[in-house]
Design brief:
Blueprint: H1 2-12, H2 31-45, E1 48-52, E2 58-62, E3 73-78, E4 93-95, E5 103-106, E6 111-113, E7 129-131, H3 140-158, E8 167-172, H4 186-189, E9 193-199, E10 204-206, E11 211-220, H5 236-245, E12 262-270, E13 274-283, H6 286-311, E14 316-324, H7 328-331, H8 336-347, E15 353-354, H9 362-368, E16 375-377, E17 389-391, H10 392-409
Parallel strand pairs: 3-8, 3-9, 9-16, 10-15
Antiparallel strand pairs: 1-2, 2-8, 4-7, 5-6, 7-17, 10-16, 11-13, 11-14, 12-13
Helix pairs in contact: 1-3, 3-10, 8-10
The structure holds zinc ion.
Pfam family, one: M20_dimer
Domain Peptidase M20 dimerisation: 207-308
Cofactor: Zn(2+)
């Protein structure tokens, strides 16, 4: 257990926060610090063909140890952490044999990780938890994934009696700002399919995610002295307010779950003359997703129509951009890649939790780039904040799942009952 803890801590104590405002790749130079370390480590454990490109994308190979033909599979994780919360000076705390009670993350600032609020903690009674000190995030998202892939590869190298095909490993920058897959060279990776190790709770297995779009809506106004404004002033703040009120009230992140989509207003700034509202649109269902975008356009038109005379031009300017799509479409035709992961979990006593992702992953972009890529748990909870934690036992299970997937893939019919002959070209 100590080995995996040490490895994980050696990654999370390196600050790799990404930055959405940067145009370079990686978005922050400090991501190189961990990237370069990972390259050295991959070589040290005995991986072959270890490469890092000028944008810090890392790839490596574990050669096949069987003489029959086996599909090449890949495992992918990201080494950046979210810009939403600081990842500098992470000081992990280790809680052995967790007793199911409150964990004092920071006595000075009275920051408590409590199972009365975070009920998932109770799943891990008796296990070893790694938490923050209450002042930073932990970075289990997704350094737990990197730890698990690295540890599984090391295990396979040290245990050559376990048979497997060729395995490719990919570590990427900038996933948290939605760019992790942008410069991922799927051809160079050369895998038939892959898995991101980037889910949360032990057992999670995901191959459906949101269709996603972002909208920026600009409201124009006219500023006039408020004492003499009758019939003249147009207050863009109030128009923006009307717009937001026209959205369905119960279709917000806090009111929805499962397959329910939403609108999420996540930024508003403005004055009389101009107000900008930013929102995101999410839905698993492609048709409903399109309908949501149409609603935004409809509300825009309605308000523009109302103010057409007074303002003389469009008072509301709406820009909608698609961000990513549901990977289900790309994974269902090769459904056995999910079945293999499910079987692997069962064989190592992990109960598979197959559920739709209420977000996106690098895997959904990779799936659309020709590399079908479901997502598997990495074990952490409460990502992107100071309450983030990961049970070491969950990381160990993830290692076992990776090893088992490798093993199953080298077996006839991938160890699955019904013959599956479909293979991606
Ligand atoms: Zn992640």
């Amino acid at each position: 257990m100590q080995h995996i803890i040490d490895r994980f801590i050696s990654y999370v104590t390196i600050d790799t926060e990404s930055d959405a405002n940067s145009e370079t790749t990686p978005s922050t130079a400090k991501q190189w610090d961990l990237a370069n370390k990972l390259v050295e480590e991959l070589k040290a454990i005995g991986m072959q063909d270890v490469t890092i490109d000028d944008k810090s994308y890392i790839m490596a190979t574990l050669p096949s140890n069987v003489d029959h033909e086996v599909p090449t599979i890949g495992f992918v994780s990201h080494f950046d952490t979210t810009p939403d919360f600081t990842g500098a000076n992470v000081k992990p705390q280790i809680i052995p044999n967790y007793d199911g009670k409150d964990i004092i993350l920071n006595a000075e600032q009275n920051i408590i990780l409590s199972p009365s609020y975070f009920k998932d903690l109770l799943l891990y009674k008796g296990q070893t938890l790694i938490t923050t000190d209450g002042t930073t995030l932990l970075g289990a998202d997704d350094k737990a994934g990197i730890t698990e892939i690295m540890t599984a590869m090391e295990f396979l190298i040290n245990n050559p009696e376990i048979k497997h095909g060729k395995i490719r490993v990919g570590f990427t920058p900038d996933e948290e700002i939605g760019r992790g897959a942008h410069h991922f060279d799927v051809d160079k990776f050369g895998a038939d399919w892959a898995y991101t190790m980037d889910g949360s709770q032990v057992g999670e297995l995901e191959y459906e995610n949101f269709n996603a779009a972002g909208a920026k809506i600009t409201f124009k106004g006219k500023s006039v002295h408020p004492g003499y404004a009758k019939g003249k002033m147009i207050n863009s703040i109030l128009i923006a307010n009307n717009f937001i009120n026209a959205l369905p009230k119960d279709e917000t992140p806090q009111e929805t779950r499962g397959y329910e989509g939403f609108f999420h207003v996540n930024h508003l700034s403005g004055s009389i003359e101009e107000t900008v509202v930013e929102l995101i649109i999410r839905d698993h269902n492609k048709k409903k997703f399109e309908k949501r975008k149409e609603l935004i356009e409809k509300i825009t038109k309605k308000i523009n129509k109302k103010f057409a005379k007074q303002f003389g031009e469009d008072i509301v300017i709406t820009e909608i951009k698609d961000q990513y799509y549901n990977m289900k479409e790309k994974v269902v035709p090769v459904k056995h890649i999910v079945d293999i992961a499910e079987k692997a979990m069962k064989e190592v006593d992990v109960k598979p939790l197959i559920k739709p992702i209420r977000g996106g992953t690098d895997g959904c972009q990779l799936s659309y780039k020709g590399l079908p890529c479901p997502n598997i748990f990495a074990g952490g909870h409460n990502f992107h904040g100071k309450y983030e934690y990961v049970p070491v036992e969950s990381m160990q299970k993830a290692v076992e799942v990776i090893v088992k997937i490798a093993e199953l893939t080298s077996m006839p019919n991938f160890g699955l009952e019904a013959p599956k002959t479909k293979k991606k070209k």
